[in-house]
Amino acid sequence: MQPTPEQSPHHAYPDHWEADVVLRDGGTARIRPITTDDAERLVSFYEQVSDESKYYRFFAPYPRLSAKDVHRFTHHDYVDRVGLAVTVGGEFIATVRYDRIDATGRPASAPADEAEVAFLVQDAHQGRGVASALLEHIAAVARERGIRRFAAEVLPANNKMIKVFRDAGYTQQRSFEDGSVHLTLDLEPTAESLGVQRAREQRAEARSVQRLIAPGSVAVIGTGRNPGGVGRTVLRNLLAAGFTGRTYAVNSAFAADQATIDGVPAHRSIGEIGEPVDLAVVAVPAGRVPEAVTDCGEHGVQGLVVLSAGYAEWGAEGRERQRELVRQARSYGMRIIGPNAFGIINNSDAVRLNASLAPESPAPGRIGLFTQSGAIGIALLSGLYRRGAGLSTFISAGNRADISGNDFLQYWYEDPDTDVALLYLESLGNPRKFTRLARRTAAVKPVVVVKGARHSGSTPPGHAVPVSRIPDATVSALMRQAGVIRVDTVTEMVDAGLLLADQPLPAGPRIAILGNSESLGLLTYDACLAEGLRPRPPRDLTTAATPQDFRDALAEALADSNCDAVVVTAIPWVGENGEAESGDGEVLAAALRTAAATGPAKPVAVVHVEIGGLAEALAAATSTAAVPPVARASAPAAPDASTAQADRAVPPTAGAAPPTAPGDHLAQQRSDTGPGDTPAVPTLGRIPAYPAAERAVRALAEAVKYAQWRRQAAVPGKVPEFLDDTIDEAGAAARIDALLGPDPDPRGRSLGHDEACELLGRYGITVRPTLPAPAPDAAVAAAARLGYPVALKTTAPHLRHRADLGGVRLDLANEAALRRAYGELTDLLGKPTELQPVVQSMAPRGVDTVVRATIDPAAGAVLSFGLAGAPSELLGDTAHRLVPATDRDAAELIRSIRAAPVLFGWRGSAPVDSAALEELLLRVSRLVDDHPEVVSVALEPVVVATQGLTVLGASVRLAPPPARTDLGPRRLSNY
Questions:
Q1: Can the peptide bond before residue 111 be classed as cis, meaning omega within 30 degrees of 0?
Q2: Rounded-to-integer distance, Cα 38 and Cα 36, Å
Q3: C-alpha separations of 167 from 60, 185, 469, 750, 970 in Å
Q4: 417 contact partners, CB below 8 Å, separation of at least 6
Q5: Are strands 510-515 and 534-535 parallel, antiparallel or unpaired?
């Protein structure tokens, strides 16, 4: 909505202030500047506000707005006078206004930096978090316009508004003057205000997902009159799953006298239903979707699952259709899964929702699954079903024009029914937010991710994402820093998910291996070594081993304090007649599960070859009924009646403590019963089974690394305080402003050598001086100033840091050596004007490394480290961490490259000064974190000696700071 020319003669309509937000109850609303065209909306809004709310706003009875009031509240200059409105369905539900004032409280202009602020929220929408969202946005607008403080007068009885200000987290002062509460808020964001904002974001977005995933009623729009078709299939699946709420079939082509279809009430529109509908599944052609959305929005539907195709995956016209779909739905306060979605499933016994095209609903379980691909979703559901795994929730988001994986991370974070989150992602719409949410979620439950479309230029159609310049290996490293378990294939994701959902986390990397095949045990041993685990020599039970032998061996391994996890390998055993028998795997499964249930809480994985029924029996849910001892026999016997009761689930004990880690619900139920005893009431948990040793070990290795991350994350790192004494943040900021100038080039500029050295010096980073050497005599003079021995090197872009091409000559001890090297350099590589040679004094011997920091538009600020030359450039042996880096991040950074042993005494060499290197990394991190204008820093080479280090080369690039959407007020992504 654009203003008229008279409204803002000097300042254009600030369309970047427009934003869609999620409110406390999960509904959406739009925040935008008020314009002169809003006069009628404002009057209508005010008429619907109660007399009490009007009194709180104006401190007196104020039944209606005068023409002068309407003009004042709709005419703004967007600098000193600003008004914002919250709209739903195009109508106002709340407003906020600030007016800049001077020290005496009179209207003022800049440089006055204080403004008076006032809110008004319709009574019907109070309690939805509207005022809190408005405060975030009006505060951001004010900061943009140079306002640093808000002043507000509030009546003491207006407790709701006082609470909004008090809970915002800003630094504030309160006083009681002339019968009202006077509040002053410092608008500079604080750690508390950012924490409040993110906590509200989490609650609101989780609630918006809950409204979709746990509806009280569902309408399927586009239910076909004949069997088959998308809509009819969804309706059939809803009924088959036993949805606990009300179900409606909607099709405008239904006959007027048709009352039901498949036993479900049939209607020609949502409006005909006459009862509230929480969720609408839209399965009509794309051209008819807008009509369906309008019908839903005007009758209070809370959310949509749009299965219809024909959107952004169809090109430019489809992309615009998709944008309009999102705009239309949000205007009514609705959120969307889709379009081009496969559907959603919620296996909670209180819901039992299958609003999807999945032919078979998976069993209930503790895994949450999100996928952006319907085809991958089908494959994952099928794979989980075959392996007996259960799901808490499943979402296939299609083009994910609105609801994304970030929203479901918000939901799963505190969902008591989900222990593990699995995500198949083809794009990251908001990578910074994903990393932040994943880190928080991973601190309480595992997050396993497969990233499809990993290569440049292969972003799936329909997905609006920022372009990233960093390689996929860097993305993977940053995910791991956030605690995300990044795997390469959906098979690996399922393998890891099964282990994490059903087993406790390992305490370390020590792995016991036992089984009845020496060869399979050795394969498992080798796989453990390849994954960086510490396997113990395999224990061979021989091919004559019975289920009781497996049980005793497993119980013994679990009881061993030197074992953190166990891999059981099993092949068909040899019967009494000497022939191999596949046998009935249920007896072996019962033996293994009994040992696991009665032993210490450690993860167990089974690798099996052609043992019938073993995997299924290990995956089945079991009861707490007593399990008889497994009889010793040369071959398994048929299960008796008590064993056959194993499929009955028993609810948890009332008042039991919630699990603190994956599998803890199993660990807490294990007793101290000895391996040879019959437990009175054991709980036999699922044990994951794998057809190959490599798959089981890889899943276990991921669990080991994740458990280690959890332990480290419990005590977060910090930035050492000593850095503050040697960092001139204000001086650096002033210098950056001067270097960029009043009208900076949006493309940025690279600093000259002296400029870069000066800026780095303000953060305690000293670059070894270099002097230009345009001629041999100049080189000799430079060496005389610096002192021998010296290095002579070229600075031409194509030769910089290329010692392999002869562009660097070291340890030149005297003038003769320097002149000789100069002649050789110019004879070999070109004229001095092309080579741009410089002279530099020699640094102490050490290991050449490279330190970089870059601002990536998708991932944010990234700190990188590697050894200089071939290791990092040819082999890609570079480690990465997100900025700001802590002392722990810096220590891990230099130890996580494959060539790290070179730094720590490899082959008898002296270890380098790792403390000095870690300090340098922290200083670079602080520089780019404090000053977002610093978009690139490269220190190369950094020679790290046994004591201290020397920075021999540096480059810095500045640019106007990119927008930080993760630090601004809450808003939904624009598409």
A1: yes
A2: 5
A3: 26, 11, 39, 44, 16
A4: 348, 366, 392, 393
A5: parallel
Would you say 506 and 565 are in contact if contact means Cβ atoms under 8 Å apart?
Answer: yes
Tokens for 474, please give them.
């860097």
H or E stretch including 355? Answer: strand 353-356
CB 951 within 8 A of CB 765: yes
* pLDDT score of 330: 94
Structure tokens at 211: 């409204």
Q: Is residue 272 exposed (0-12), middle (13-18) or buried (19+ Cβ within 10 Å)?
A: middle
CA atoms within 13 A on the CB side of 475: 27
Sheet holding 28-33, edge to edge: 19-22, 28-33, 81-88, 91-101, 114-121, 149-154, 180-186, 171-177
- Cβ contact 941:872 at 8 Å: no
Q: Specify whether the backbone of 84 is left (phi greater than 0), alpha (psi in -120 to 50) or beta.
A: beta
Report which residue type is found at 864: S
How far apart, in whole angstroms, are the C-alpha atoms of residue 422 and residue 619?
Answer: 19
Q: Decide: 397 and 440 in contact? Cβ < 8 Å.
A: no
Q: In sequence order, what are the residues at sequence separation of 6 or more whose Cβ sits closer than 8 angstroms to the Cβ of residue 725?
A: none
Cα–Cα nearest to 633, from 554, 576, 585, 591: 576
535 prior amide bond cis, ω within 30: no
Report strand pairing: 420-425 vs 363-371: parallel
CB-CB neighbours of 661 under 10 Å? 18
* 8 Å CB contact between 865 and 879: yes
Kindly state the helix (H) or strand (E) to which residue 137 belongs, with its residue range. Answer: helix 130-144
What b/e string do you get for 428-442 counting C-beta neighbours within 10 Å, with b at 16 or more? bbbbbbbbbbbbbbb
Q: Are 207 and 333 in contact (CB under 8 A)?
A: no
**Residues in a beta bridge with 100:** 115
CA 730 to chain CA centroid, Å, is: 33
- The rounded distance, in Å, linking the Cα atoms of 917 and 942 is 9
Q: What SS3 state is found at 634?
A: coil
Residue found under tokens 């080369």: 953
Contact present, 222 and 284 (Cβ < 8 Å): yes
Q: SS3 of 64, please?
A: coil
d(CA 247, CA 266): 9
User: What distance in Å separates the CA atoms of residue 318 and residue 326, rounded to the nearest whole number?
Assistant: 12
CB 546 within 8 A of CB 552: no
Secondary structure (H, E, C), 812-859: ECCHHHHHHHHHHHHHHHCCHHHHCCEEEECCCCCEEEEEEEEEECCC
Question: Following CA atoms 140, 145, 149, 152 in sequence, which dihedral angle do they give, to the nearest 10 degrees?
Answer: -80
Could you read off the pLDDT of 741-757 as tens digits, one per residue? 888 888 889 999 899 99
Q: What is the pLDDT of residues 451-494, one digit of tens each?
A: 876 555 455 555 555 555 566 777 787 788 889 999 999 999 99
- What's the token pair of residue 556? 């013994």
> In the prediction, which pLDDT does 176 show?
87
Per residue in 32-61, pLDDT (tens digit) is: 999 999 999 999 999 999 999 999 999 888
**Cβ proximity of 524 and 513 under 8 Å:** yes
Report DSSP letters for 288-310, one per residue: GHHHHHHHHHHTT--EEEE----
CB 5 within 8 A of CB 306: no
Residue 803: which pLDDT band, with cuts at 50, 70 and 90? low
306: left (phi over 0), alpha (psi -120 to 50) or beta: beta
> What's the rounded Cα separation, in Å, for the pair 159 and 748?
49
Which has the closest alpha carbon to 863: 789, 928, 810? 928
